[in-house]
From TrEMBL:
Residues 73-93, 494-516 are annotated as: Disordered. Keywords: Cell junction, Cell membrane, Cell projection, Coiled coil, Membrane. SUPFAM superfamilies: PH domain-like (SSF50729), Second domain of FERM (SSF47031), Ubiquitin-like (SSF54236). This is FERM domain-containing protein. It is found in: Cell junction; Cell membrane; Cell projection. One of its GO terms (molecular function) is actin binding. Residues 5-322 form the FERM domain. Its main location: other. GO terms for cellular component: anchoring junction; apical plasma membrane; cell projection. Residues 82-91 have a biased composition (Acidic residues).
Length: 561
């Protein structure tokens, strides 16, 4: 039984482990990985490993076709039983993988689309590209200006955390997130809190955006960066000048050693006729046969092999994009559209539910605010009602005291009247008795005057309190109406009307009986009776002193005549 080996494949967001045989090919391992993660857009990706010299390289998926001479040499040099054996350069164990246990591989994007929105079909493809590009930007493998970095960070936060919610995403929420390249943070004198606030300001603008849409927006911005999707190789020209060769989806570019952003020479795929290498020498032949070939030199033959492989893969994708989609790709796009449409509908439904919930919460908050206002209004009206009731109680007590004083005054007046009658009838009594009676009458007169003064004071106080009570009654009535208004519906406040209006009644003659309530005391009549009594008593008090003085004068004249 063939000996097995353990391998670990690291994607951008997961680790996978497999057991492979000595005869497992790179293609078989690759197929196992894409099947496990559910990826169908396999043409963008590859398996990367570190070789024995410490360089990153891509695993070979297919056998390299042998030339006729090489096949003949192999047939002549091997026994008949082995004459049909193939080369093993596509086997995982036959490649220059660094010997570890388990063997380490990285599943990465090897080729990049020209337009992410047009070419990326599956969400898993989108996610893998997004994570790889974001990691390259944060590690400064792809240069990104500060302003663009902040905008990209806001899409990254939207993709990770969803919509910004002030109640959940308070200050310091992003403290543990890696948002910006360290170079950007070092370039500007801003604190981490200030950077987070800048990102949050943009993040708040993306409300309602799907996570996948946020990833797509991130890539749409990132694909315009100069270093996006470019594989750089160190080369030298014929003058031994150090340069950079950049291989990307659109062609080949030559850069100066100290500037990876601005290409000095460009070779679009559409203008390249042939690329080849011999040993360390690499040759680019333009379609225009009159144009000179571009020749450069790599440090090792292995580098030229990698350059050629990347050129072939990018050129193949370049040509494929300009042809009609295959049946498989058409089916994938149709399925993706259906899935995204279903997801969008689900999202819209969710948004409607969220909006409905927010409306309900706002309505509930309005009810709570209204209830709190009603409660405060009720407490205020209750306080006013209590105050009015206290005022009425004080008035009733004052009226009682006034009535007692009036009763006492009336009693003293009657006593004085009796004395005056006795005085009038006692013309024949002795002078001493008559003087004593006159003295008693004078004392009674003083008492009546004193009581009269007290009654007048109490009467004035009563009038004042009556006015306050009227005001209090008015406030009490208003308080009751207001209390009723905030605690009940206003339907029963309306005067009963004829609901069944009939415009056809002759001459418009309509009558309705009004109910009578004989048992109800008329407060207006009570107030009128009390006022009349007070007025009558007040008039009597005013007349009483004059009558007494006149009576005394007449009696004095009679006594001395």
């Amino acid at each position: 039984m063939p000996k097995s080996m353990n391998v670990r494949v690291t994607t951008m967001d997961a680790e996978l482990e497999f057991a492979i045989q000595q005869t497992t090919t790179g293609k078989q391992l690759f197929d196992q990985v894409v099947k496990t993660i559910g990826l169908r857009e396999v043409w963008f990706f590859g398996l990367q490993y570190t070789d024995s010299k410490g360089d990153l390289t891509w695993i070979k998926l297919y056998k390299k076709p042998d030339s006729v001479i090489k096949k003949l040499k192999r047939r002549l040099s091997k026994p008949p039983s082995d004459s049909e054996d193939e080369s093993d350069d596509d086997l995982v164990m036959g490649q220059d993988v660094k010997k570890e246990n388990p063997l380490q591989f990285k599943f990465r994007a090897k080729f990049y689309p020209e337009d992410v929105q047009e070419e990326i079909i599956q969400d898993i493809t989108l996610r893998l590209f997004y994570l790889q590009v974001k990691n390259a930007i944060l590690s400064d493998e792809i240069y990104c200006p500060p302003e663009t970095s902040v905008l990209l960070a806001s899409y990254a936060v939207q993709a990770r955390h969803g919509d910004f919610d002030k109640s959940k995403h308070s200050a310091g929420f992003l403290a543990n997130d890696r948002l910006l390249p360290q170079r950007v943070m070092d370039q500007h004198k801003m604190s981490r809190e200030e950077w987070d606030q800048s990102v949050t300001t943009w993040w708040n603008e993306h409300k309602g955006m799907l996570r996948e849409d946020a990833m797509m927006e991130y890539l749409k911005i990132a694909q315009d960066l100069e270093m996006y999707g470019v594989n750089y190789f160190e080369i030298r020209n014929k003058k031994n000048t150090e340069l950079w060769l950049g291989v990307d989806a659109l062609g080949l570019n030559i850069y100066e050693k100290d500037d990876k952003l601005t290409p000095k020479i460009g070779f679009p795929w559409s203008e390249i006729r042939n690329i080849s290498f011999s040993d360390r020498k690499f040759i680019i032949k333009p379609i225009d046969k009159k144009a000179p070939d571009f020749v450069f030199f790599a440090s090792r033959v292995r580098i030229n092999k990698r350059i050629l492989a990347l050129c072939m893969g990018n050129h193949e994708l370049y040509m494929r994009r300009r042809k009609p989609d295959t049946i498989d790709v058409q089916q994938m796009k149709a399925q993706s559209r259906e899935e995204r449409m279903a997801k969008q509908q689900q999202r819209e439904k969710l948004q409607m539910e969220i909006a409905a919930r927010e409306r309900a919460e706002r309505k509930q908050q309005e009810y709570e605010d209204k209830l709190r206002t009603m409660q405060e209004e009720m407490e205020k009206r209750q306080s006013e009602l209590t105050e009015a009731q206290e005022m009425i109680r004080r008035l009733e007590e004052q009226l009682r005291q006034l009535q007692e004083a009036k009763d006492q005054l009336e009693k003293r007046q009657n006593e004085l009247q009796a004395m005056m009658i006795r005085l009038e009838e006692s013309k024949e009594m002795e002078a001493a008795e008559r003087a004593k009676l006159e003295e008693e009458i004078m004392m009674k007169q003083e008492e009546v005057s004193r009581i009269q003064t007290e009654v007048e004071v109490k009467d004035e106080e009563t009038r004042r309190l009556q006015q306050e009570v009227e005001d209090a009654r008015q406030r009490q009535e208003e308080a009751k109406l207001a209390l009723l208004a905030v605690t009940t519906t206003p339907q029963h406040h309306h005067v009963a009307e004829n609901d069944d209006e009939n415009d056809e009644i002759p001459n418009g003659d309509v009558s309705r009986d009004l109910g009578t309530h004989e048992g109800i005391i008329d407060p207006v009549e009570d107030r009128r009776t009390l006022a009349e009594r007070n007025e009558r008593l007040h008039s009597q008090l005013k007349v009483c002193p004059d009558d007494i003085n006149t009576f005394f004068e007449e009696n004095r004249r009679e006594m001395w005549t």
